[in-house]
Fold each of these.
Amino acid sequence: MELTSQHKCFNGTQSFYKHESTSTGLSMTFSVYQPPQAKHKKVPVLFYLAGLTCTEETFMIKGGAQRYAAEHGIMLVTMDTSPRRTGIKGAAESWDFGHGAGFYIDATQQPWATHFRMESYVVHELRNIIIANFPALADRIGVFGHSMGGHGALTLALKHPDIYKSVSAFAPITAPSHCPWGQKAFSNYLGSDHAEWAKHDASALMRTRKTPFPQGILIDQGLDDEFLDTELLPHHFESACWTAEQPLTLRRHSGYDHNYYFISTFMQDHIAFHAGILNK
């Protein structure tokens, strides 16, 4: 693990790293914000999963989260959204698939299966790196994300409730099996079997659960989001939560769209939501 840059931020430390990943078989990058409390004790950890085209820098630069993480004593971790420089033909041709669009799943179809193993990377490898090298509380970990990363946050939390104690999302892709972004990714990464797709679809997963997060799930969605009715489909997840008796706070905001101006507006609420669970 190599430290590539480090900066003081709200009396904490914002750092960027790169390392050779055993999950993807390639070099990966991630970033960590350690709040001032981490100088004296171990603190809870909140993983952020970014959306299409983003890197490990996007959230840390644009999200405005460090101020609130410092107030609540929460460590923030985010990572690149896929392996890069894979050498796979066509991996860099589309902004919504391939490089920058790993969808936080482990691909099963070649040529993607060799390197596109983002679920294993996030859930296991990177989490273990954070626990081993930073003052992180291993039993107090939450996850949140935006768009593709919101999909990742919801699905990883539902598949690994023993790891993630809290979950929230900004404008998540909630039913990827039913939207063009998800269908493009899943057909290439997972093949044509829709039963395999359902294993990585937040709405489908929720319908098979029973109150998986009794302390609730928080989602914020802008009503002027250009992807709302074609790609995000929050009503699917809302219905699934009703079936699963899962407490859900789905806030719909007039005038807000899909970008980081929207995300940063409600970041304080999300950090406080996770802190209320992780700091107990």
Amino acid sequence: MKKITNSQIHYGSGIILSLFIGLHLFNHFCSIFGAEFHISVMNSLRIIYRNVFIETLLLFAVCIQIISGSKLIRRLTKKYHLNFETLSLWSGLYLAIFLLIHVSAVFIGRFVFELDTNFYFGVAGINIFPINLFFVPYYGLAIMAFFAHISAIHGKKMKSNILGFTPQKQAIVILIIGFVFSILLFYGFTNHFKGVVIPSEFVDVLR
């Protein structure tokens, strides 16, 4: 029987996480239509991922992704001069740090502060000064790192042109999509544009 490699384990857990992150980012995209619509979509999606089986699977995938990724980082640093390898290395490293902080924060919010970690959980950090000086780049870099990681993998694995675009150009397009997407998310999560009133329980946790 052929042994499963660390790269295959990392790739497999990455697919599981990417499916969830894709749904999660779609949910956040809905914020441009207002808080109520975002929360409505979130409640529908939670039926899928907020149950014991799926949530345990996602947590397991996060752990596997970080552990297998740390092994890949040691190998990739030996080929640091390769563009896609470099992009994969740094985006993967930031995603690992982000996942550790973000997952921990969500569980602390849910089980320690007994908050519904919904739309307002993210909006509070982005809109309250001076804590937003941390949360704006924290979230912005996470979104870009996610798209950058996908871009790097696509650039390495894709062998054929699409509509005349080489794999390298396709990877750049993915990065551009990620940048535009992050701007739209910040627009939806910024109360200066939407007139969002953040409930006091979310504000109190950050002060």
Amino acid sequence: MKKNEYFKEIEKIYKEKKSDFKKRLQEFRDTWNKGTNKDIHLELSFCILTPQSKALNAWQAITNLKENNLIFTGSAEEMVEYLNIVRFKNNKSKFLVALREQMTKNGEIVTKDFFSSIPTTFEKREWIVKNIKGMSYKEAGHFLRNVGFGSEVAILDRHILRNLVKLEVIDEIPKTLSPKIYLEIEKKMKEYCDFVKIPMDEMDLLLWYKEAGVIFK
């Protein structure tokens, strides 16, 4: 394990933007601490829309659904009209309805209450992967990070994997990202983050910023 030339490049960015990363992560924690069941449900719904789509587009789609009173009441057929800016809109509209049905009790959304009842971050993630349609380890980790539980889990999308290769944490981007491979790479990323003393959730924002030039979610 070493700090190569590429790390020195991103370390410079980290030192410049560190306070911004910490502020954003605090905002994520505030989403959980101050948010309602519906607020947390929106974050989970957002992560269903992100696969092979831009995060900004996925959040815009969620915003549009919310403004048109569809995310909590609309059918898949009604919602799909607002998902043109994300890929696989037909499947994802069905996933959103299925999620809403899972997270409704006695006619009310209970998403935050439900996840509060699951003790650990890793148990929350396992439940999501096994029970929510359209969500893998990556999307589950994304949701957990966005509500303040990101210090232990990685969000291994292609931009993170590409940067992990540049940092020499992994040799190459795997052709397929099975659960076993995902967890192996996550472990390597965590060990590297501990080595360079950058928390994993801050590292994710740092590498995302390096790629996109913005700190989003």
